[in-house]
C-alpha cells in the first residue's frame, strides 16, 4: 500500500505540476546559481536550493519526473512487449527457432548498449523517442530470457495439458493459461527493470545521450550536478533521492501488484 | 563429458561470434564516417578525402565487410582509427584492469551479500530482515557515479584514507570495487535471502536438524550449498555485465578498463577496436557460461554436463 | 518394558492470524523399548506435528505443552536449544516420508551419515567410514562402501529410505520415529523397507513410533496402535484388539476402508472366463517412444480396449504409463506405431480424437490453473467446442459439480480454496463436461489420502456407468486397479509384460514381474503379518 | 610523491606516442616533453613570434627556399647525434604515410634537402608565409631516422620512442598515465624534474579531488565552481590564462533556412549579451567578443569587440519585426562537454533569442553525433563551435576548410582573399587581408563570435606554472618555488 501511495504522489505531482505553486523550472537567474536548500535571493525562495543556472531544484525535480517516468514506463513497456513476443515464440516453438533466437540474444547481450544508442541517435535523431527506442533495443533480452524460462516451466504443467486435450484454441491457451501464470515473474522483473531504466537514462545523460537540455529529466540533473557534488551537494543529491524513492515505490508497487493478482493471496 | 561440453561450447561460440561481428559492423557502419573525428580543425576537405581513401572507407559496405572478415580469418584484427596501431593489443591491454575490478567488485559483493542474505533469511520477517531488504533497494537505486563521487569525497578528500583515483595498488582498487560491488551486493543479498528461505524450508534441512548437529553446520554445509546455484547464476550474469566494462565507475576513478575504451571507440567509430572488444567480451561471456556450468556441476552432483 | 517416550495430555498450538490455534491436544502416548507403536489418522490430523514435537522441530512460534512429556527422562517441555541438539540424533532419530527430498541432494551419503557419527559419537574420520559402511550393510544395502561416495540422486527410492534409516540409527537412539516412511514407495519396495524397520527394531530394541495412514501397514508392523483424528487421539489399543473390535466410529470407518486383498488373489483361482471379444474402441499398435533420443519410455506397446471396458494399467514408477496416456490423448506423438480410435487413425487422421478422449491427472495441484475459477475450469472444454452463453455455462458448471458430488456454489472459488479430493473431483468434472467416450485416469488417487481415495474411486465407478464410459485407469497400487478394472495390463520398463482379463492376470500371473507385484500386497490382518519376529503379545 | 616528480592531470589519455598521428592538443601537451620542434612558438608578447629551438637560425629570401641551421650538440635519447637527415626523414615520413592524422602537416613543402649535417634546405610549393607555423606544434615533432628505420616496425619504435626532448620515455600505462624520466644528456642543460607523470583523469570532480588532496601538482580544466575552494586553500592556487580558442555561432545562410534573412542574423548578433555570458556562465573566465581569433594570433582584428555596445535587444526586436520573423523557429545545435560550459553557453544564447521574440530551440548533441551531423550538414540553423589550436588567422580563408564549416556562405570579396593573402608582399599587408576577411564574415554574420575562453588550471602552491597560450604543458615551464 505504501508503494501505491508513494507512486501515486510522484505520478500525480508530475502530471499536475502546472497546477502546483512552483517556480518555472527553466527560469534561469544566473546571480542566484548554486544556492543551498532553504535559501533565497530577490524574493525567490529555494526549498531544495538552486542549480548551476540558478533554476529552482524543487520545480525541476517535479517537472523532471515526467521525462524520467515516461522513459522508464515507455521503454520498459516497449522492451517488455518485444521480449514477451520473442520469449513466447522461443519457448513455445522450440527447436531451431529457439536456438537461433537464443544466439541472437547472446549476441545482443555482448554488444554495448551505447553503440545502439549512438546508431539510434544518428538514424532517428535525439530526444525522448529515440532514447526509449534505444533502451528497448537492448533491454528486451532481459524479458525474452525470463519469459522463455517461464514458458518452459508452465507449458508442461498438467493444466496446460488438460487445456490442450480440451482442444482450446492457441489464443486461449496463451491468454488464459500461459500468460497469467508467467505474470508474477514478469511483474517482478518489470518493476525492478523500471528502476534500472530510470537509472540507465541517468547513465546515458552522463554520456550526453539523455533528455535534451530544454527538457528536464532526473538523469540529466544527476549528470549535470555530479560536477559540483563537492561544492553544491544538493544539485545531484536531490534528483538521486527522487530516483531512489521512485524505484523504491515501484518495487513495493510490484510486490503488491503481484500479490493482488494472485488468487491465493488473501485479499 | 568435458570434451563434449567443450565441443558444444565451440559450436555455440562460432555462430554467436559471427552474429555479433555482423551486427557490430552494421551498427558502426551506420554511425557514419570516422574520419570526421580524426582530422584537425584546419584540415581541408581534400585532406579528409585522402584519409577516407587511405583507410579504404570509400568502398561500399559489403566490400569493407568481406575484406574485414577475410583479414580476421588470417588473424589480422585490424588497425584502430583512433590509435593508429593494431587493435588487438589495445583491447588486451585493458583486460587485466577490467578483470581486477570485476574481481574486486565480486569480492565486495559476496562479502556483503552472503552474510546479509543469510541473516535476513534466518531472521525472516524481523527488523534485521527488513533492514537488509530496505538497504538493498536503496543501494540498487543509488546511481553508480553518485556513490563513486561520494566515496571519493569521504574517503579520499575528507578522511584521506585512500587514494582518490588511478590504479596500480591494492588501495586503488578499494573504492571502485566498493562502488561497483554495492549495487551488485544489493541484488545478490536479496537473492541469497530468497534462496536460503526456500532451502531452509526443504525437507532435508529438517532432516539435518533432526540429527542434532550444530546450527552452523546446518546453515553453511546443508543450506548454503543448496542455495548456491541461483547465486552462481546471478553472479555470472553480473560478471558478464561487468566484463563489458563498468564505464561509469571506470570514468569516475580513472580506472583503465575496457568500459572507457569501448565508449571512446564507439564515439570515434573505431571499428576495429569495437569489434575486438565485443569479440573479447563475447568470448569471455561464453567461457564464463561454461565455467558456470562447471560450477553447477561441482555444487550439485545431479547436474550433468 | 522400559518406557522411552511418555506423553500425557500433550498439546501443540501454532500462531495463526489472531492468536494461537491448537492443532493437537490431549495426546497420550507411550513408546517403550522393543515396541512398535503406530500412529494412524487422516491427513492433517496432527501426526507429523506430534512426531516433530519429540525432536523440538515444531514450526517457528509453535507452543508445546504437556502434563508429562519425557524422552528417556528428559522433560521435553523445558528444553534449551542446546538440550534439543544433544537429544536429537543421540536419543531420537527420525525417518521422513519423502525419500526424494529428505536427503540433502548435494552431499554424499557418507557425509550425511558421517556427521551424525562425528557429532553424536565423536568418531574419527577413519572409524566413521567403517561404521557407516557397516550401518549401510546392516540396512541391507549392497556395496555399502561405494555407496558412501555416492549422492542421493544416484539411489532408488527404496535405497534412499534405507539410507535415511541408517542415518536415524547412526546415533544409536532409543526412539525411532518413522513418519510415513513407505507412502511414496512402490508396493514391492514398501514391503522390503517395512521388513527392514521391523528387523532393525527387533535387533536393537529401539522403540519405534510408526506414523502411517495405511491400516494394512499398521496390521503388518505395529504392536500397539493409536488413532488420531482432528488433533486428538481417539482410540489406542493393541493391534489385534483394535482390528478385531474397533471402538471409535472413525476407527471403524478406517478399518472398513482398508483395501482388502481379494480372495481370488490369495487362492490363485481365475474367476469367470473372459467375455467374447468385441470390436475395439481403442487400439494401440506397436507404440514406441523415446525422449530426447535416449530414454526408451515405450517399447513396442500394443493394447486393445473395447467400448465400455475399463483397462487398468499397473507398473512401477517410470515404466511408461503416463507416456502412454499422453500418446492416446494426443499430447505427445510416438516415434512409431499407430493409435486407432473407433477405427480412425488418430496420428494421421485430420482431427485427432476431438473431445472423445479426456483425461484426469494425478496431481490435484498442478492440473488446475491456479488463476481460473472452478466454474471456468470445468466448462473450458465445452467452450472449446462451441461458444456458450454465460447462463448456459453457469448451469452446466453447476450440473457438473453436482454430478461429481460438489456443491454448485464452488464454481466461483479458486483451486487453492479446495482440498485435494475436491480438486480431483473438479478434474473429473472437467473431463466429463464434453461427454467423452474414453476417459483416461492417470493415477487419479495416488496423491490423496485413504478415505478420500475410496470416495474418488467410488465416484469414478458410479460415473462410468452413468456416462457409459470406456476407461483407462492407471495406478501403481494393485488394489485400486483390482477394484475398478475389467482388463489389466502390467508394464515394466516401457513394455507391457502381461495383459488380459483382470482375474486372469491377478489369479494366474504369467510374468515374474506381475508375481512380484502381487507378492508385495500387504494384508490388513494383523494375524497375517509377514514381518513380525516376536509373536503378538496380545493375540 | 617525491618533490622531484611533477604530476600533471589531464582530462584524457594521450592517443599516441607518434607525434604525427594524434591530432589532439592534450596529447601534444604531453609529447612536447619528449620531442622537439625545429622552432618554438613564443606567445609571451603581444603576438606570436618564432624563436630558435633545434634550428638556431633560418633565412629565406623568397619564402620559397628556406635554409635552417641546426644545433650541433643535440643527442637523441639513445645517444646518437641529431642531424639534418632526421629533419628530412621526419618531413618525408609524415608526407608519405597517408594514414597519419597529420599527414597534411607539411603539405606546402616540396622538398627537404640536407646541405650539411647541421644545415637543411626546405623548398616550398610556391610562396609560403606560414612555413614556420607548420614546423612547430601538433604533428611537427622530430623523429630519429636511424632508430626509426632500425626498429622492426612503426609500432615497435613507438613502444619505446626516442626524441631529443628534456624527458625520456619510461612507460605508458594506457588510460592511466605516461611516465617520463629526466634526460640527463639534454642539450638544454639538466632538466628541472627527475620524473614527469601525466595522468588521465577524465572525470572532472575526480580530477579536482585528486588535485586538492595533493595527488597531482597541476590539474587542467578546473570547473569555475571549484575555483573559490581551490583559491581559498593555501596549498593550492588557480592559474588562468588566455588560449588559442574562440567560441562562435556558425550560421546557416542558405535559402530555406530560418537564418537566411540577413536581418534575422543581425538581430541574433545584437540579442546576445556577451558580457553577461562571460561573467555568469563562465564566471569571468572568458572575454566577450565578436571576433574569431584572440589577440595573440597573427591577423587578430581588434575592431571586433564584444563589449556592452554590441548588445541591443531593442534594435534586435525591430529587425525581427522588419524581417517579419516573429516567432520563427530557430534551432541551435551544441555539443556537450566539449568546450568549457558549452551547453550552458548555448542555453543562455537560446534564452537571449527567445527574449527578442524568436522561437529558439536548443539541440544538444553528443560530440560524435555532432561531428557526423556537421559533416553531412545536418545541424540546426546555427551551431556552436569552439575552433582552436590555431597559430594564424589565415586558416579562416581557404575555401577547402571553410566548406567544412560554412559551406553555404559565399562572398565574392571574401573568396578572393585566400589568393590575395598568399600573394601579399609584406606581412603587414597579409595581416590586413586577414582582418578584412574576419570583418566580412562577421558582418555577414556567417559566424557570430561570442567569447574567447580562458584555460583554468589548478597548480600546487609549491610550484609555479603560468600556463601557455597554446595549452602545451612543458614540464620545464613548471618550477619548484
Ligand atoms: N508449519 C506449519 N504452519 C502452520 N500449520 C501447520 C504447519 N505444519 C502443520 N500445520 C497444520 O497442522 C495440522 C496437522 O499437520 P500434520 O502435518 O501434523 O498432519 P499429518 O497428520 O502429519 O498429515 P499428513 O498425513 O498429511 O502428513 C494441519 O492442519 C496442518 O495444516
Ligand atoms: N518429457 C519427458 N522428457 C524426457 N523423459 C521423460 C519425459 N517424460 C517421461 N520421461 C521418462 O520416460 C520414462 C517413462 O515416464 P512415464 O512418466 O511415462 O512413467 P510412469 O510410468 O508414468 O511413472 P510414474 O509412476 O512415476 O508416473 C521415465 O524414465 C521418465 O523419466
Ligand atoms: Mg504428516
Ligand atoms: Mg506417471
From TrEMBL, chain A:
Transmembrane segment boundaries: 67-92, 104-122, 185-211, 232-253
Keywords, comma-separated and alphabetical: Cell membrane, Hydrolase, Membrane, Peptide transport, Protein transport, Transmembrane, Transmembrane helix, Transport
A GO biological process held by the record: transmembrane transport
Database matches in Pfam families: BPD_transp_1
Predominant subcellular localization, coarse grouping: membrane
GO CC terms, sorted: plasma membrane
Molecular function in Gene Ontology: hydrolase activity
Superkingdom to which the source organism belongs: Bacteria
Keyword Transmembrane: yes
Family recorded in the similarity comment: Belongs to the binding-protein-dependent transport system permease family.
PANTHER family according to UniProt: D,D-DIPEPTIDE TRANSPORT SYSTEM PERMEASE PROTEIN DDPC-RELATED (PTHR43386:SF1), OLIGOPEPTIDE TRANSPORT SYSTEM PERMEASE PROTEIN APPC (PTHR43386)
Official protein name in the record: Glycoside hydrolase family 2 sugar-binding protein
Organism: Ketogulonicigenium vulgare (strain WSH-001)
Automatic annotation (TrEMBL), chain B:
Superkingdom assignment: Bacteria
Stored InterPro entries: BPD_transp_1_N, MetI-like, MetI-like_sf
GO terms (BP aspect): transmembrane transport
Gene Ontology CC, one term: plasma membrane
Membrane topology according to the record: Multi-pass membrane protein
Membrane found in the keyword field: yes
Keyword entries, A-Z: Cell membrane, Membrane, Transmembrane, Transmembrane helix, Transport
Lineage: Bacteria, Pseudomonadati, Pseudomonadota, Alphaproteobacteria, Rhodobacterales
Family statement drawn from the similarity comment of this UniProt entry: Belongs to the binding-protein-dependent transport system permease family.
Localization: Cell membrane
Name under which the protein is recorded: Oligopeptide ABC transporter (Permease)
Membrane-spanning ranges: 9-30, 99-122, 143-163, 169-189, 231-253, 273-296
Positions of the ABC transmembrane type-1 domain: 95-292
From TrEMBL, chain C:
Membrane topology: Peripheral membrane protein
Domain of life: Bacteria
Domain ABC transporter: 5-255, 282-518
Molecular function as annotated in GO: ATP binding; ATP hydrolysis activity
GO biological process: peptide transport; transmembrane transport
InterPro entries on file: AAA+_ATPase (IPR003593), ABC_transp_ATP-bind (IPR050319), ABC_transporter-like_ATP-bd (IPR003439), ABC_transporter-like_CS (IPR017871), Oligopep_ABC_C (IPR013563), P-loop_NTPase (IPR027417)
Keywords carried by this UniProt record: ATP-binding, Nucleotide-binding, Transport
Subcellular location as annotated: Cell inner membrane
Entry's Gene Ontology cellular component terms: plasma membrane
Pfam families (alphabetical): ABC_tran (PF00005), oligo_HPY (PF08352)
Principal location listed in the UniProt entry: membrane
UniProt xrefs under NCBIfam families: PRK10419.1, PRK11308.1
Protein name from the UniProt record: ABC transporter
Annotated organism of origin: Ketogulonicigenium vulgare (strain WSH-001)
Amino acid at each position: 500500500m505504501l508503494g501505491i501511495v508513494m507512486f501515486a504522489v510522484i505520478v500525480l505531482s508530475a502530471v499536475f505540476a502546472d497546477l502546483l505553486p512552483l517556480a518555472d523550472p527553466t527560469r534561469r537567474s544566473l546571480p542566484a546559481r548554486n544556492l543551498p536548500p532553504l535559501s533565497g535571493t530577490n524574493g525567490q525562495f529555494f526549498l531544495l536550493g538552486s542549480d548551476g543556472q540558478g533554476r529552482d531544484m524543487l520545480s525541476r525535480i517535479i517537472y523532471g519526473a515526467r521525462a524520467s517516468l515516461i522513459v522508464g514506463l515507455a521503454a520498459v513497456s516497449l522492451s517488455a512487449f518485444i521480449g514477451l513476443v520473442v520469449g513466447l515464440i522461443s519457448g513455445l516453438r522450440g527447436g531451431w527457432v529457439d536456438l537461433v533466437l537464443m544466439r541472437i540474444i547472446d549476441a545482443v547481450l555482448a554488444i554495448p548498449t551505447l553503440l545502439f544508442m549512438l546508431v539510434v541517435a544518428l538514424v532517428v535523431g535525439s530526444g525522448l523517442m529515440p532514447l526509449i527506442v534505444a533502451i528497448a533495443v537492448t533491454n528486451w533480452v532481459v524479458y525474452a530470457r525470463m519469459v522463455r524460462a517461464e514458458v518452459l516451466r508452465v507449458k508442461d504443467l498438467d493444466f496446460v495439458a488438460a487445456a490442450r486435450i480440451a482442444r482450446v484454441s492457441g489464443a486461449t491457451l496463451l491468454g488464459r493459461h500461459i500468460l497469467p501464470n508467467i505474470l508474477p515473474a514478469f511483474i517482478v522483473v518489470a518493476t525492478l527493470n523500471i528502476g534500472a531504466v530510470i537509472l540507465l537514462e541517468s547513465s546515458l545523460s552522463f554520456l550526453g545521450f539523455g533528455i535534451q537540455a530544454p527538457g528536464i529529466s532526473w538523469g540529466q540533473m544527476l549528470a549535470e550536478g555530479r560536477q559540483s557534488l563537492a561544492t553544491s551537494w544538493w544539485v545531484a543529491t536531490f534528483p538521486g533521492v527522487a530516483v531512489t524513492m521512485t524505484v523504491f515505490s515501484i518495487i513495493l508497487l510490484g510486490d503488491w501488484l503481484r500479490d493482488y493478482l494472485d488468487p491465493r493471496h488473501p485479499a | 563429458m568435458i570434451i563434449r561440453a567443450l565441443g558444444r561450447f565451440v559450436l555455440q561460440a562460432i555462430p554467436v561470434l559471427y552474429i555479433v561481428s555482423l551486427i557490430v559492423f552494421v551498427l558502426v557502419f551506420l554511425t557514419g564516417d570516422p574520419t570526421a573525428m580524426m582530422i584537425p580543425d584546419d584540415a581541408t576537405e581534400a585532406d579528409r578525402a585522402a584519409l577516407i581513401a587511405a583507410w579504404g572507407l570509400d568502398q561500399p559496405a559489403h566490400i569493407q565487410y568481406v575484406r574485414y572478415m577475410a583479414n580476421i580469418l588470417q588473424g589480422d584484427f585490424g588497425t584502430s582509427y583512433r590509435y593508429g596501431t593494431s587493435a588487438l593489443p589495445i583491447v588486451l591491454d585493458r583486460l587485466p584492469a577490467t578483470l581486477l575490478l570485476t574481481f574486486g567488485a565480486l569480492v565486495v559483493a559476496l562479502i556483503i551479500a552472503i552474510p546479509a542474505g543469510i541473516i535476513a533469511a534466518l531472521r525472516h520477517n524481523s527488523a534485521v530482515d527488513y533492514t537488509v531488504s530496505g538497504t538493498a533497494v536503496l543501494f540498487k537505486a543509488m546511481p553508480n557515479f553518485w556513490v563513486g563521487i561520494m566515496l571519493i569525497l569521504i574517503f579520499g578528500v575528507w578522511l584521506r584514507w585512500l587514494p582518490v583515483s588511478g590504479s596500480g595498488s591494492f588501495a586503488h582498487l578499494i573504492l571502485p570495487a566498493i562502488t561497483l560491488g554495492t549495487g551488485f551486493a544489493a541484488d545478490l543479498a536479496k537473492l541469497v535471502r530468497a534462496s536460503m528461505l526456500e532451502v531452509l524450508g526443504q525437507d532435508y534441512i529438517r532432516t539435518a536438524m533432526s540429527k542434532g548437529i550444530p546450527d552452523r553446520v546446518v546453515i553453511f554445509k546443508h543450506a548454503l550449498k543448496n542455495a548456491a546455484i541461483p547465486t552462481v547464476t546471478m553472479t555470472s550474469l553480473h560478471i558478464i555485465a561487468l566484463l563489458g566494462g563498468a564505464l561509469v565507475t571506470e570514468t569516475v576513478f580513472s580506472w583503465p578498463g575496457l568500459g572507457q575504451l569501448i565508449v571512446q571507440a564507439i564515439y570515434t567509430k573505431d571499428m576495429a577496436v569495437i569489434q575486438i572488444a565485443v569479440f573479447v567480451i563475447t568470448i569471455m561471456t561464453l567461457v564464463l557460461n561454461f565455467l558456470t556450468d562447471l560450477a553447477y556441476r561441482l555444487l550439485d552432483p545431479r547436474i550433468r554436463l | 518394558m522400559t518406557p522411552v517416550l511418555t506423553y500425557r495430555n500433550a498439546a501443540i498450538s501454532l500462531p495463526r492470524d489472531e492468536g494461537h490455534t491448537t492443532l493437537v491436544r490431549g495426546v497420550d502416548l507411550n513408546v517403550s523399548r522393543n515396541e512398535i507403536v503406530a500412529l494412524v489418522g487422516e491427513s492433517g490430523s496432527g501426526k507429523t506435528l506430534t512426531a516433530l514435537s519429540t525432536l523440538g522441530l515444531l514450526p517457528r512460534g509453535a507452543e508445546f505443552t504437556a502434563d508429562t512429556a519425557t524422552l528417556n527422562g528428559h522433560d521435553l517441555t523445558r528444553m534449551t536449544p542446546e538440550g534439543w541438539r544433544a537429544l536429537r540424533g543421540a536419543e531420537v532419530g527420525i525417518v521422513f516420508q519423502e525419500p526424494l527430498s529428505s536427503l540433502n541432494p548435494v552431499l554424499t551419503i557418507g557425509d550425511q551419515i558421517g556427521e551424525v557419527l562425528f557429532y553424536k559419537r565423536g568418531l574419527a574420520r577413519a572409524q566413521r567410514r567403517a561404521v557407516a559402511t557397516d550401518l549401510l550393510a546392516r540396512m541391507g544395502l549392497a556395496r555399502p562402501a561405494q555407496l558412501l561416495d555416492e549422492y542421493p540422486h544416484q539411489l532408488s527410492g527404496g535405497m534412499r529410505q534405507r539410507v535415511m534409516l541408517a542415518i536415524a540409527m547412526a546415533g544409536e537412539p532409543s526412539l525411532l520415529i518413522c513418519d510415513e516412511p513407505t507412502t511414496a514407495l512402490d508396493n514391492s519396495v514398501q514391503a522390503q523397507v517395512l521388513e527392514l524397520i521391523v528387523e532393525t527394531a527387533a535387533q536393537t530394541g529401539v522403540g519405534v513410533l510408526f506414523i502411517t495412514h495405511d491400516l494394512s501397514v499398521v496390521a503388518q508392523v505395529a504392536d500397539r496402535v493409536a488413532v488420531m483424528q482432528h488433533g486428538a487421539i481417539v482410540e489406542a489399543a493393541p493391534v489385534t484388539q483394535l482390528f478385531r473390535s474397533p471402538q471409535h466410529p472413525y476407527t471403524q470407518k478406517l478399518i472398513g476402508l482398508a483395501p482388502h486383498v481379494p480372495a481370488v488373489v490369495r487362492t490363485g483361482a481365475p474367476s469367470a472366463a473372459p467375455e467374447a471379444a468385441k470390436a475395439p474402441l481403442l487400439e494401440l499398435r506397436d507404440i514406441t517412444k523415446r525422449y530426447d533420443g535416449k530414454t526408451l519410455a515405450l517399447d513396442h506397446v500394443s493394447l486393445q480396449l473395447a467400448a465400455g471396458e475399463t483397462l487398468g494399467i499397473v507398473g512401477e514408477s517410470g515404466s511408461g504409463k503416463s507416456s502412454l496416456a499422453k500418446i492416446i490423448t494426443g499430447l505427445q506423438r510416438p516415434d512409431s506405431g499407430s493409435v486407432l480410435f473407433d477405427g480412425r487413425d488418430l496420428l494421421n487422421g485430420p482431427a485427432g480424437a476431438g473431445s472423445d478422449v479426456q483425461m484426469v491427472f494425478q496431481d490435484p495441484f498442478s492440473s488446475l490453473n491456479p488463476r481460473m475459477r472452478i466454474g471456468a475450469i470445468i466448462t473450458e472444454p465445452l467452450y472449446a467446442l462451441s461458444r456458450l452463453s454465460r447462463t448456459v455455462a453457469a448451469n452446466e458448471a453447476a450440473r457438473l459439480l453436482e454430478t461429481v458430488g460438489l456443491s454448485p456454489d464452488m464454481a466461483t472459488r479458486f483451486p487453492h480454496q479446495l482440498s485435494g479430493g475436491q480438486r480431483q473431483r473438479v478434474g473429473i468434472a472437467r473431463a466429463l463436461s464434453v461427454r467423452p467416450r474414453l476417459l483416461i485416469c492417470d493415477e487419479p488417487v495416488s496423491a490423496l489420502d485413504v478415505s478420500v481415495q475410496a470416495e474418488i474411486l467410488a465416484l469414478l465407478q458410479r460415473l462410468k456407468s452413468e456416462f457409459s464410459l470406456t476407461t483407462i485407469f492407471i495406478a501403481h497400487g494393485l488394489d485400486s486397479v483390482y477394484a475398478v478394472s475389467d482388463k489389466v495390463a502390467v508394464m515394466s520398463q516401457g513394455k507391457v509384460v502381461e495383459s488380459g482379463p483382470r482375474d486372469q492376470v491377478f489369479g494366474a500371473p504369467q510374468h515374474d514381474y506381475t508375481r512380484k507385484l502381487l507378492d508385495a500386497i500387504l494384508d490388513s490382518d494383523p494375524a497375517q503379518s509377514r514381518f513380525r519376529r516376536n509373536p503378538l503379545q496380545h493375540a | 610523491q617525491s618533490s622531484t616528480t611533477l604530476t600533471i592531470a589531464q582530462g584524457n589519455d594521450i592517443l599516441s606516442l607518434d607525434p604525427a598521428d594524434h591530432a589532439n592538443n592534450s596529447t601534444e601537451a604531453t609529447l612536447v616533453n619528449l620531442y622537439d620542434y625545429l622552432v618554438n612558438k613564443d606567445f609571451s608578447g603581444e603576438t606570436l613570434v618564432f624563436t630558435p629551438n633545434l634550428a638556431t637560425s633560418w633565412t629565406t629570401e623568397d619564402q620559397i627556399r628556406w635554409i635552417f641551421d641546426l644545433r650541433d650538440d643535440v643527442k637523441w635519447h639513445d645517444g646518437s647525434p641529431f642531424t639534418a637527415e632526421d629533419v628530412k626523414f621526419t618531413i618525408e615520413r609524415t608526407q608519405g604515410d597517408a594514414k597519419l592524422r597529420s599527414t597534411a602537416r607539411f603539405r606546402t613543402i616540396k622538398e627537404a634537402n640536407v646541405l650539411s649535417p647541421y644545415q637543411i634546405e626546405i623548398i616550398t610549393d610556391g610562396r609560403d608565409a606560414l612555413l614556420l607555423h607548420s614546423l612547430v606544434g601538433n604533428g611537427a615533432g622530430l623523429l630519429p631516422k636511424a632508430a626509426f628505420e632500425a626498429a622492426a616496425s612503426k609500432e615497435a619504435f613507438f613502444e619505446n620512442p626516442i626524441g631529443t626532448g628534456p624527458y625520456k620515455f619510461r612507460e605508458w600505462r594506457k588510460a592511466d598515465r605516461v611516465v617520463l624520466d629526466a634526460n640527463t644528456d639534454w642539450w638544454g642543460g639538466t632538466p628541472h624534474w627527475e620524473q614527469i607523470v601525466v595522468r588521465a583523469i577524465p572525470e572532472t570532480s575526480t580530477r579536482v579531488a585528486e588535485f586538492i588532496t595533493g595527488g597531482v601538482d597541476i590539474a587542467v580544466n578546473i570547473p569555475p565552481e571549484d575555483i573559490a575552494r581551490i583559491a581559498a586553500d593555501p596549498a593550492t592556487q588557480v592559474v588562468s590564462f588566455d588560449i588559442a580558442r574562440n567560441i562562435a555561432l556558425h550560421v546557416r545562410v542558405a535559402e530555406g533556412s530560418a537564418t537566411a534573412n540577413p536581418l534575422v542574423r543581425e538581430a541574433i548578433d545584437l540579442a546576445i549579451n556577451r558580457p553577461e555570458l562571460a561573467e555568469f556562465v563562465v564566471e569571468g573566465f572568458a572575454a566577450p567578443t565578436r571576433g574569431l581569433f584572440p589577440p595573440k594570433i597573427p591577423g587578430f582584428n581588434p575592431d571586433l569587440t564584444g563589449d556592452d555596445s554590441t548588445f541591443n535587444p531593442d534594435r534586435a526586436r525591430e529587425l525581427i519585426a522588419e524581417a517579419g520573423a516573429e516567432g520563427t523557429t530557430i534551432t541551435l545545435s551544441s555539443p556537450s562537454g566539449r568546450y568549457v560550459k558549452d551547453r550552458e553557453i548555448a542555453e543562455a544564447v537560446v534564452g537571449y533569442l527567445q527574449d527578442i521574440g524568436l522561437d529558439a530551440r536548443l539541440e544538444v548533441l553528443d560530440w560524435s553525433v555532432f561531428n557526423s551531423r556537421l559533416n553531412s550538414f545536418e545541424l540546426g540553423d546555427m551551431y556552436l563551435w569552439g575552433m582552436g589550436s590555431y597559430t594564424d588567422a589565415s586558416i579562416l580563408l581557404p575555401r577547402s576548410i571553410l566548406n567544412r564549416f560554412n559551406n553555404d556562405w559565399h562572398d565574392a570579396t571574401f573568396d578572393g582573399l585566400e589568393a590575395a593573402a598568399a600573394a601579399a608582399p609584406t606581412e603587414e599587408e597579409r595581416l590586413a587581408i586577414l582582418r578584412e576577411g574576419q570583418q566580412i564574415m562577421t558582418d555577414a554574420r556567417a559566424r557570430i563570435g561570442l567569447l574567447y575562453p580562458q584555460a583554468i588550471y589548478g597548480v600546487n602552491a609549491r610550484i609555479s606554472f603560468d600556463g601557455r597560450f597554446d595549452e602545451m604543458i612543458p614540464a620545464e615551464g613548471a618550477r619548484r618555488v
